[in-house]
Amino acid sequence: AQRKFYVDTLGGVDKKIGTTMVEVIEFPNVFLFFRPMQKPTGGTIGTTVNHIGFSVPNLKPVVAKIKANGFKMITRESVAANVKVTDDIAAASPTTNIAFVLGPEDVKVELVEVKTQTAPIQLHHIHFFGQHNAEMQAWYAKTFGATMQPTPPGAAFLRDQLPGVSLNFSPSPTPTVATQGRALDHIGFEVKNLEAFTKKLEAEGIPLTVPFRKIPALGISIAFIKDPWGTNIEMTEGLDKIK
Known about the structure:
Elements: H1 2-9, E1 13-17, E2 22-27, E3 30-33, E4 49-56, H2 59-68, E5 72-73, H3 75-78, E6 85-86, E7 89-93, E8 96-102, E9 108-113, E10 122-130, H4 133-144, E11 147-148, E12 158-162, E13 165-171, E14 187-190, H5 194-203, E15 210-215, E16 220-226, E17 232-237
Parallel strand pairs: 4-9, 10-13, 14-17
Antiparallel strand pairs: 1-2, 2-3, 4-10, 5-8, 6-7, 7-8, 8-9, 11-12, 12-13, 15-16, 16-17
């Protein structure tokens, strides 16, 4: 089901990496890893990571393919009542069209139209929801060195920028839950000099939930932390070198 959605429908690439041939799906700027033996406790909606976003040059054929392959469009339920929605595509602004789909295991995915984009599809953003979204924005800027972006008047969310991905932060009217165990169990960032970075985090009072260790089968190093609101975060060093 995941392959039908992310590969056959959205255009990701099936890959096997490392000496153990771990199956992943690759998009520009991101790998998707799957843990097939664990049944998720729920989808992304209601968690701190409400959805992930990809950008495409033209939404219409992508939305048509999503519907033809039997996946549920949820654009109308995902945008404000005053936003015009036509054929499951929302006019989010005079220059931006967006759409939302519910993928397998109830993972919510946003698609953003970027007409100047040359790649057929690529990672665009991670969208966090929380009752303290300004604090979330500041935490990711301080912890990972993300650049806090100016907030236009009337903007629906706050935004940080990291290479290859935006981090969006919306206020949630209701409490959100942690990601661990859900369909999107954790997000991940590639970090230079990861071992030194983990020591810096610990010195700042951010404990490691999984200590720094090397994964020889993949040729990478990993460690995990959680943000103060329960987002499970993997940090890697070496994934960017995998071809």
